[in-house]
């Protein structure tokens, strides 16, 4: 569908095309009699065709006066080029092909089409469109710059070498031509020197603040090595900070953030520690020895001060590996690996059942013994079973394990609270049941993104942490995953 156009917009477009209307405008698709302002030729146009063809630039004229490339002889072509002040340097091909020439005025070589020359385009160097290479060379030489790559354009980045400072910098021809020098390093250095405070004035300010400079002044924002005239300590303050009244020496301030050795020594001795090595700073490691446990270790004063603790061994911030291994042996285990940390398990052997497995120091501290020897909850060596139960009222599913022979039947305890047994699988040992249950729970929590569904008050008999929403997953899906795990275990054994 052709878009409508108002008469005002149609006349504005006609004026943009350098045409004049000779009759009233009716529609964009209807022929419209117009006159070319250039050659006074009268003809008809369809406005929608011209609006589609000429969107960015107007037409070069009407069909009669627009210059179009036509075939011509080589003699005529050479004559036209000489008439424009250009000497051809290669044979003529056609009107629209690029033709190498030399300008008779500036003697620079370039390429142009005969069609363009006939329309008035001449030498770009003489016309100011391009920069003459000779002008470029002379200007760069005056600026003390040596080009390291060919010239591209007026605003393109240009890598050059500055003879004065010996640096390779990036500039543009426009920057060099404008007289800015081309080298940004030298330009900014000159500007900073003009803005920099005189050295004698800076030295006077520093001395009035109570500091004696030990090196030449650079600028207000560079550290300046000075000696405090009050405490004789050497420091490196900024002149800008000194001018603000912050002082030159952190040790002489009323509320100094610097922790002196006397202050640090008083703190650690109050905590029952004696220094073994010399004190450096509040953030440096400092070897100290406890008077109570006689153990030495490295400390950082800032950490001790922020957390207000003394000996790391007495305050239980750290466990001595020898004490940890001694604790394992006291609890009936023989360590088979070096102690690393309280939360990282090490391989141990139970001196009662002779079973070997990995155990952490944290579980040892909580009073848990050998998982094979304990009989209070689950006997890992006795036969067991895995089960799935459901509660329709709570709309919940639960997985669990129990020994075949037990003082209290786990299933009956759940059935008294309204649960129904849906699936049960007998297993050889409680250890196998425990491993399978942990894998099923990890699959439910991590892969299926199902959280604990019930709370403790809803299951007085226990087991609420193994529950899931029955609307989110089915019994069949849990059972299939469990049986796949079980078949993998039996295949690995056989």
What do you see in this structure?
The chain is α+β, with helices and mostly antiparallel strands and 494 residues long. The chain has 7 domains: 7-53, no CATH class; 74-118, no CATH class; 133-192, no CATH class; 196-250, no CATH class; 261-307, no CATH class; 321-365, no CATH class; 384-493, no CATH class. Helix content is 30%, strand content 20%. The protein is built from 16 helices and 22 strands. The chain has helices spanning 7-16, 47-53, 74-83, 114-118, 133-142, 173-177, 184-195, 199-208, 239-243, 261-270, 301-307, 321-330, 361-365, 410-415, 430-447, 475-493; strands spanning 19-21, 32-36, 42-45, 86-88, 98-103, 109-113, 145-147, 158-162, 168-171, 211-213, 226-228, 234-235, 273-275, 285-290, 296-300, 333-335, 346-350, 356-359, 384-391, 396-403, 420-427, 467-469. α15 crosses α16. The longest helix is centred in the last third of the chain and has 19 residues, at 475-493. The model has no long low-confidence stretch (mean pLDDT 84).
Summarize the structure.
The chain has helices at 7-16, 47-53, 74-83, 114-118, 133-142, 173-177, 184-195, 199-208, 239-243, 261-270, 301-307, 321-330, 361-365, 410-415, 430-447, 475-493, and strands at 19-21, 32-36, 42-45, 86-88, 98-103, 109-113, 145-147, 158-162, 168-171, 211-213, 226-228, 234-235, 273-275, 285-290, 296-300, 333-335, 346-350, 356-359, 384-391, 396-403, 420-427, 467-469.
